[in-house]
Amino acid sequence: MAHEQEECSKKKIQYPLDSNSYKILDEIGVGVSAIVYKAACVPMNSTVVAVKAIDLDQSRADLDSIRRESKTMSLLSHPNILNAHCSFTVDCRLWVVMPFMSGGSLQSIISSSFPDGLSEPCIAVVLKETLNALSYLHKQGHLHRDIKSGNILIDSNGSIKLADFGVSASIYEPNTGQGGWASSSSSSASRMMLTDVAGTPYWMAPEVIHSHTGYSLKADIWSFGITALELAHGRPPLSHLPPSKSLLMKITKRLRLSDYEKSHNQKDKKFSKAFKDMVGSCLDHDPSKRPSAEKLLKHSFFRNCKGSDFLVKNVLSGLPTVEDRFRETRIVNKNGSVDDETEEDPESDSATTIVKQRRISGWNFNEDGFELDPVFPTESREKQSESDNSDDNVVKQVRFGGETIIQDQKSDNSSYSNSGSPGAAGDDQAEIEAGNIEIIESESNVGGGGDFDRETVVGGLVILRRSLDEQRQQVCDMIAMFGGEVTREDQLVQLIEKLKMELENERKKNFELEMELEFLKLQISGAYNSTDN
Amino acid sequence: MKGLFKSKPRTPVDVVRQTRELLIYTGRAPDTRETKREEKMAELSKNIRELKQILYGNSESEPVSEACAQLTQEFFRENTLRLLITCVPKLNLEARKDATQVVANLQRQQVHSKLIACEYLEKNIDLLDILVSGYENTDMALHYGAMLRECIRHQTVAKYVLESQHMKKFFDFIQLPNFDIAADAAATFKELLTRHKSTVAEFLSKNYEWFFAEYNSKLLESSNYITRRQAIKLLGDILLDRSNSVVMTRYVSSRDNLRILMNLLRESSKSIQIEAFHVFKLFAANQNKPPDIVGILITNRSKLLRLFADFKLDKENEQFEADKALVVKEIAALEPRDRP
């Protein structure tokens, strides 16, 4: 209460509502439909601010959700939450003026200077401040829905703020326009559960991925647990293999080549019991067993937590500026996408292709490895043998609420699913594939369809892209394997030749795609977050 | 004795009563000492939060319908809503948000299957004047705006606002430079013009002249992108609604309206173009096109056909393509009529 009073007495300073009052200094983040600038507010002693300029004409989000986001932000008031100073339109762009957080996002800090993660005392400070914000949000009835280190910003004085309410939702706000009124007397349970998919896949709670059950505040707690792992390892779980190897890669490796590339699992880092316990409780499968944000704050891990000065000394000192880091990532990403072009999978005939999905039924938190292990549905074993024999042209995809991803990218649909397929790589190869990968029939019961979230789509694309990488790797392996056999050598050389041709084609096609993905990826990691930097 | 029983849990009725007392207290002239006043304000905030928790439940418990009914009944038994609304500017941000949510929720609460909030508002309709004027105050706009949108879910209340002088003000509110406030006003405006079909149809028929004159000049021809985009979308929603067919027929018979729509079709913004098409198609599909409309369409025939030839949605949409084909066919087949 004392805090609230204090906030209230602080009269909100009105920032000017016209673009002429702001002088753009530098670009610090870019996304599909938004650019983030570092700018000076001239009439206010050239106070440095971050301006997120959202192209409303391009933006996937409809105006109503942009309005809700903007309103949510302007009505929140907490030291650990990044507020907007003001927002106004400039032609078809919405300018959201926010405080400039000079340290940038934790994600950008980690990727530039702490590739193996932060030290535990630093993590504790970051997480505690984040929890304060989360606890406030939850008390207000808001879900953040996209908790990750990319949305945790730090200022030069070490203060931490949670940002990006692009996908936040309120359990108090009735869905505008429809429904609410008629169900006026129904219990709040329906309002407490939101069913549309939002967020970024790696951080998503299982019940969000399988969104038919709906989810509530506890989904944020899951993402918070993932964020803790992210801060500790330098990457979210299942993306801890070098950048473009992946979720899918890791899963298949575990099933087939469990001895391959496991080195990254076994870090020499040691984590405290308290930390493991705290993270473990967040990653409970049963949302109701996860602690609330408020309860988490009392966890022993946060006892004797250091202050923001500690972060200034141990994280911020010697760090490149946000602008420099942004430029850096741009260059790296450009190069990265060029490096990536090696073999690609050939096309399969999509008309005769049976689309199947492999779903992950859950995650197990492995406390020793401090990692998440995927769990597959058990019935998949039976399917496996079937697919062994029959399905040469099987398109395999891992989808996270995948329908939305696919529908949204309709035009690219076929090329994505095809590249996810080892199918026409040659029948013999496909069989080898099918034997090694567990497949179950898709149960496409993820509802909702109509509303797409940019983040979800981007996340989905990233996963698909990684699936491409994996398939490419497999083709590589196969080429190597076949190459090793002497008897059928000639035949194989031909086959390889043919494959190479096809791959060449694929590569061309995929190049553009990858460029776009890099761009989107940048947005995930960057856009708003590095912006707010 | 009193000490033995630690504060007995208060009933919903108690909470409402105490809230009311505190509201009356803070409404009085500030003759009391500052510290005492602050104490009372803090207590008031706490009570409002408690009201919210009874109505919405919290993370541990669902709301109890019996408690909600008692609360609602007590709330509207006396003048608590008026006290609360007028007190909002004095509250701190958190209490303002709580108050907004309480007011919003109360509009939906039924007591003996009656919406008693509606009955109360009908008798205290001037409260709507306060809520609408919230858009003129940066600090109040979002709170009063949210309350207003809940209140106009009652048909009689919406009718009052539609027929009041406030309606004209919305054309300016929508274009306020502050995005949050302008967008909130636009949402309310849309709600007023789409929710209660018969009321809207009646309003538009009676107020056709001034309303569409304003709508065209201030909104559709605004220099502000977002205003144009929202306005053309809303116009489509209004005209395509079956209950507004009389208004629609009138609208699509005017050459001035056609001119405005054709300009919107030429916009560089795809979103605006597409929304404009949904209105333009009504002009083309009208089976009783006045001669001047036919004339304009014929004069611009080649340009229009060229435009539609490249006109596509990002996502394939059968309905859209069908509409387009129809419009193209209609325009291609037009023949100049002999003027009488």
UniProtKB/TrEMBL annotation, chain A:
Transmembrane residue ranges: none
Highest taxon listed in the record's lineage: Eukaryota
Domain Protein kinase: 22-302
Keyword terms: ATP-binding, Coiled coil, Nucleotide-binding
GO BP: regulation of stomatal opening
Single GO MF descriptor: protein kinase activity
Residues that bind ATP: 52
Chain segments annotated as coiled-coil in the UniProt record: 489-523
InterPro entries given in the database record: Kinase-like_dom_sf, Prot_kinase_dom, Protein_kinase_ATP_BS, STRAD_A/B-like
Bias (Low complexity) ranges: 412-421
Family the entry assigns: Belongs to the protein kinase superfamily. STE Ser/Thr protein kinase family. STE20 subfamily.
Protein name (record): Protein kinase domain-containing protein
Record organism: Dipteronia sinensis
Automatic annotation (TrEMBL), chain B:
Molecular functions (GO terms): protein serine/threonine kinase activator activity
GO BP term (any one): intracellular signal transduction
InterPro entries tied to this protein: ARM-like, ARM-type_fold, Mo25
Family the entry assigns: Belongs to the Mo25 family.
Protein name: MO25-like protein At5g47540
Species in which this protein is naturally found: Dipteronia sinensis
